[in-house]
TrEMBL record:
Pfam families, A to Z: DUF998
UniProt keywords, alphabetically: Membrane, Transmembrane, Transmembrane helix
Record protein name field: Predicted membrane protein
UniProt key word Magnesium: no
Positions of transmembrane segments: 28-51, 71-94, 101-120, 126-146, 158-174, 194-210
């Protein structure tokens, strides 16, 4: 008790534990951006492919849809750009996620935006670099967002396997793209859609889980 009769605020480990018991609420706008990312990505490649008189989504890549030879290349370009911005907005709202994880989510978002700005038919090298950075960063960020002693979506036993799966899908896509698979790249488009779709959905999984935990009043790990 202080001289005025009030209880002083906790300090040291007690204060840290008290702060951990009241995690920041993931704002509504982060939930919106987390929903927008997969809707933009998947919706864009679905609509863009539908506009093409002949397009094989199993073999042909998402990047092909944003090239000048397509009926409406701006559809896929806009979808990629919006997805990239959405990832950055989501990262800004995940204040209880470790900084490294948030930073890689931002990096993945910026790289995805760059993929839209540098179409493969006009800026092949920059497009390839941007895509590699984006796939890599979005595959790594779940593991980097893990916190020791945490439970749920940020626990190492959930976050690290998530990264392993996402990076594994990237590896399969690269193998298909380089035509070193038994099918000689016949599934290039399908594997790219699997990895791009999964990577666009994981931020939504994290946001939804953290908002649910906050409503239930369960603390994050100290």
């Amino acid at each position: 008790m202080t001289a005025s009769g009030s209880t002083p605020p906790p300090t040291g480990p007690t204060a840290h534990a008290a702060g951990a018991a009241h995690p920041h609420r993931v704002p509504w706008w982060a939930l919106v951006s987390a929903v927008v990312a997969p809707v933009s990505m998947i919706g864009a490649w679905t609509l863009s492919a539908a506009l093409q008189p002949s397009f094989d989504p199993v073999r042909d890549t998402i990047s092909d849809l944003a090239t000048a030879g397509m009926v409406a290349p701006w559809v896929m370009g806009a979808g990629l750009a919006v997805t990239g911005v959405a990832h950055c907005v989501t990262a800004a709202g995940l204040r209880d996620v470790p900084t490294a994880g948030r930073a890689f989510l931002v990096l993945g978002g910026l790289a995805t935006f760059a993929v839209a700005m540098f179409p493969s038919d006009t800026h092949s090298q920059l497009h390839g670099i941007s895509a590699a950075v984006g796939f890599g960063a979005l595959g790594l960020w779940p593991a980097l967002a893990a916190r020791r002693g945490e439970s749920g979506v940020l626990s190492p036993k959930v976050a690290i396997p998530a990264s392993v799966v996402l990076l594994g899908l990237v590896g399969v896509f690269v193998a298909e793209l380089q035509q070193v698979t038994p099918d000689d790249g016949a599934l290039t488009g399908l594997t790219e859609r699997l990895v791009a779709g999964a990577q666009s959905l994981w931020p939504l999984v994290v946001v939804a889980a953290l908002r649910r935990r906050r409503r239930a009043g369960r603390p994050l790990a100290a």
